[in-house]
Design a protein that fits this description.
It is a single chain. 41% of the residues are buried. This protein has 15 helices and 14 strands. It folds into three domains: 206 residues, Glucose-6-phosphate isomerase like protein, domain 1 (Rossmann fold); 167 residues, Rossmann fold (3-Layer(aba) Sandwich); 51 residues, no CATH class. The termini are far apart. The chain is globular. The chain is of the alpha/beta class. The strands form four sheets. A five-stranded mixed β-sheet has the order 1-12-11-7-10, with helices on both faces. A five-stranded parallel β-sheet has the order 3-2-4-5-6, with helices on both faces. Strands 8-9 form a two-stranded antiparallel ribbon. Helix 2 packs parallel to helix 7, helix 8 crosses helix 13 and helix 10 packs parallel to helix 13. The longest helix is centred in the N-terminal third of the chain and has 23 residues. The protein binds 5-phosphoarabinonic acid.
Length: 482
């Protein structure tokens, strides 16, 4: 396995020797940050050994992965389409890996769609586009209590019943906690096929469990290879010391820019098809794991932002270069890429002939280097990461790498990287607003607070775009009385 995997992590552009504006890490700062990262990693290892956190063990659940891939093989024989229902950590990992390995253009199994929104203008057409006689639905909710996924599931079941009558259950799989929550109760009472997410693995750390492995395997993506890649990264992490260890070095550098020289924004600039989806997965991991209050009450966190090379060079780079020095950058690209095509030798406007007869990829790589160089000249801290290939092993390794870096950075910052109290509060209020039993008091309190807020709403309505009739504008201000 080791022979086939290839990564390049480059932290040189955050070293003080290369960043001489006070933004870089001196050898002393780096060694302190590494020491802190090592201590945090040791603490996480103890939490893992005590069974409190489960993500480090997922790559070793090979037997489970084989069982999932056998089940998925059965699904591929019975169905043409796979509709995954879920949100956040129950959706983003599958999307990242699926698009990472090539998406629809490289598909080897069922036609996969992940529905992670309840916008009716998106969800209803999506549902209608599925031939429910040959569609499998995999609904994923670790807690079971997420309103969005429950609403999607009810609609999908209605569609399955219409198309398949009594056989609707044969089309459905639930993935949830092994013993708790409404999804688990529903699966058990209705006799619906189900798989479990280990209780000590939270949503955004769950891509290498059934949450990602089952839908991906049904779409023809090998879970065994994903896990093999993650095990490879685990052995790199366990085997290298200090600055030679890319996990510790990454955690040290990023936690420096999280708390010692805090940069409120972390931009992932991706170069390569599919990486934008990986960046979406990372955004949730980074934002939700680190955006917290410490026990003392002080907030910590970094806004995870995404930019796509080369497109956003012509949209974001001006800001990144000359705007506020409030960002740390991670540039991510595939080392090689798949397509080998050349630009034709002729047909250029005068002065552009240098582009002719060369691989288009040369231009793409030059843009990557040029953008890094320009931002570096402007004194921005930059980490470069190159991923050898667009395959399962590399993606498994890369996602596992970021899970570790994020967990260690959280531990270094003094927050719990594995909880999400803000997300939970939003879920509770949503259920209350929708009339959940026993939530009347909470609903009233929330609505009263909203009514009593200062309002500054301007609504413009009436007339026609051609300007025939006069428009009516209303402005509400001051306290709204409830
Ligand atoms: O990372 C997390 O825990 C969350 O973002 C969840 O994945 C998300 O809220 C969905 O939760 P659930 O899987 O319980 O429906």
């Amino acid at each position: 396995m080791a022979g086939g995997i290839d990564f390049r992590f480059d932290f040189s552009l955050v070293h003080e020797g290369n960043l001489r504006n006070g933004e870089g890490l001196t050898p002393l700062k780096m060694s302190r940050a590494l020491g802190r990262a090592q201590r945090a990693a040791n603490k996480l290892a103890s939490r893992h050994a005590a069974g409190e956190i489960g993500f480090p063990g997922l790559p070793f659940l090979e037997k489970e992965a084989r069982a999932l891939s056998r089940y998925a093989a059965g699904m591929r024989k019975r169905f043409t389409h796979l509709l995954v229902l879920g949100i956040g950590g129950s959706a983003l990992g599958t999307k990242a890996v699926y698009e990472g390995v090539g998406g629809e253009s490289a598909r080897k199994g069922l036609r996969l769609t992940v529905a992670d929104n309840v916008d009716p203008d998106g969800f209803f057409p999506l549902l209608r586009s599925h031939p429910m006689k040959t569609t499998a639905v995999v609904a994923i909710s670790k807690s079971g209590g997420t309103a969005e996924t429950n609403a999607q599931l009810a609609l999908a079941i209605e569609g399955l019943k219409k198309a398949n009558g009594k056989k609707w259950k044969d089309h459905l799989v639930l993935i949830t906690d092994p013993s708790r929550g409404v999804f688990r109760r529903f699966a058990d009472s209705e006799g619906i096929a189900s798989f479990s997410v280990p209780p000590n693995v939270g949503g955004r750390f769950s891509v290498l469990s059934a949450v990602g492995l089952l839908p991906l395997a049904a779409a023809g993506v090998s879970g065994e290879k994903l896990l093999a890649g993650a095990r490879w990264m685990e052995s790199v992490f366990r085997g290298a010391r200090g600055e030679k260890n890319p996990v510790l070095a990454g955690a040290a550098v990023y936690s420096h820019y999280l708390t010692d020289n805090p940069k409120p924004v972390h931009v992932w600039f991706t170069y390569g098809e599919g990486l934008a989806r990986v960046a979406e997965w990372w955004q949730q991991l980074w934002g939700e794991s680190l955006g917290k209050r410490r026990p003392s009450g002080t907030p910590v966190g970094q806004t995870p932002a995404r930019a796509v090379g080369v497109t956003d060079q012509h949209s974001q780079v001006q800001l990144y270069q000359d705007g506020p020095a409030d960002k740390v950058f991670t540039f991510v690209k595939w080392m090689g890429g798949r397509e080998k095509g050349n630009v034709p030798a002729q047909g250029f406007a005068p002065g552009m002939e240098m582009l002719g007869g060369r691989p288009l990829r040369d231009l793409f790589h030059a843009e990557f280097e040029a953008t890094i160089g320009a931002l570096w000249k402007a004194g921005r801290p930059i980490v470069r990461m190159e991923v050898g290939k667009r395959d399962e092993a590399h993606l498994g390794a890369f996602l596992h790498y970021w899970e570790w870096v994020t967990a260690i950075a959280g531990e270094c910052a003094g927050v719990d990287p594995f909880d999400q109290p803000g997300v939970e509060e939003g879920k509770i209020i949503t259920r209350a607003l929708m009339g959940e039993k026993g939530s009347g008091k909470r609903r009233e309190e929330f609505l009263r607070a909203m009514r009593n807020r200062d309002s500054a709403e301007i609504r413009i309505a009436g007339g026609s775009p051609s300007g025939g009739k006069r428009r009516r504008a209303t402005r509400r201000s001051g306290k709204e009385r409830g």
